[in-house]
Fold:
Amino acid sequence: MTQTQILIAQAYAAFNARDIDGALALMTEDVTWPKASEGGKVVGKEEIRAYWTRQWGEFDPHVEPLALSDEEGGKTRVRVHQLVKSLQGDVLSDSEVVHLFTIGKGLIAAMDLGDEADSSAGPSSAFAHRS
Structure:
């Protein structure tokens, strides 16, 4: 595994463990992140913390990386299995999606949704069924 692949695997593991501090430690201070469950983006670690706290209060998402590939421009494409459940355990979405990471200075500088035309327009289809 490359350093980038290890970094990204650690980020997914921290997210799935709900280890916000562990995940944020792998990111730049000005990281940008999509708000998949709300639409739009957040910038910075504290905005990600607030967003994930809200998201986990409504949904139980779990993402497992299936394949990673390096792209042009220093980006890494990750195909993931994404399982989104309600807090009661009902499956809301069970699909494969693409995440596109940008790495800067050995840390995650940005993550984008690679399978949706405009993530700023609204929530990802995986989160369309609000609990």
About this structure: Residues 3-16 form the longest helix (14 residues). The chain has three helices and six strands. Confidence is low (pLDDT under 50) at residues 117-121.
